[in-house]
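Entry:
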Amino acid sequence: MSGFLKRLGSFLLILTLGVTLFGAGVIVGGGGRPALAAQSGSASPLRPLLEVWDLLHREYYQRPLDDVALVRGAMDGMLAVPGDPHTRYMPPDEFEAFNQTLEGELEGIGVEVDVQGGRLVVVSAIEGSPAAAAGLRAGDVIVAVDGQAVEAAKSPLSVISLVRGKAGISVTVTIERGRERQELTIVRARIPLQSVRGRLMESDGSAIGLVRLSSFGNKTAAELRTVLQAQLPKAEKGLILDLRGNPGGALDTAIQVVSEFIGDGTVMIEEWGPGQQQRYPARSGGLATTVPLVVLIDAGSASASEIVAGAIQDRGRGTLIGSRSFGKGTVQSWHALAGDNGGVRITSARWLTPTGRWIQAKGLKPDIEIANTAPGRDRQLEAAVGLLNGEPVVSDLPPWERYRQ
């Protein structure tokens, strides 16, 4: 399976000011077709497009036309035909801003969103970000930015242009939460992205290691290894891997992360085309392949988070506690276009757990389902600690959650 870079961003984006050029790409033919540059004859499928181009430039009453806008509009239309919300063209600012999130620092409000039913829904707010401080949370629907309506179904990533800006400048975000509408004024900031945090929790005279992953960026695997090296000698009772609110990131990072906990064997399966498949094995040298393990997930755990949690669940390596995860089971390949012309992302495959489960729109069901409904308490974390202490822990969902299951 080839691609400039495979990312599992769950159509998740961090609303930022992007400042780093992602890279150069090459436009090639796919699926056995020749590259478009070779399709210049009279039978070329591009001929009608070129005819329309010529007619517009010769006959449209308001000239000159914006050639860049025409080309980008044509790309938008072409990529919309498959009907996949994750396959689309991204102008330069959107493309750079999205990829900046993997580089360890961003400038913006720090919120990840997804398109659900044509609405822009918050998946999670980055830990320590202005969005988190303002109270944005999973499930909120962003309906406007500075009074301008957000048209998620038309161009989801274009919301970046509405909220990006220099640190210290405020932006007003209008959200719907249930039946209520709220306006939140949020001051943009420069947000360092430390994707892994760890601490030891004392429990009955022994220690439990808590490892929190907030994203899967370029530095995540190295950060995780550093935390594990510090915690493992002291975490006698085991580890808790907290993936709640983690929207995903790079596929390769997900494989590196799960390999720290699974010694060998398949960690995920990728499928594309007519029956083509690739199995991804765990990489050798994992630091925590035998320590007792609990993984926390919730509705904000998406994409790469689900790869990690799904592999641990399928392989019987640990216990999943929390609530059902987001449910994103596709892979996107990312391609930078030549020059300063942005890029495209194309859904190139779907991924399955080691036992062949496709979790798209369904998510992962935890082994023990616990809802965080008590104010001021983290019942899911309490359940994980109890399990590692040898206490009996059973699913405990409120009636409305049980009905939804």
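The two ends are 35 Å apart (CA to CA).
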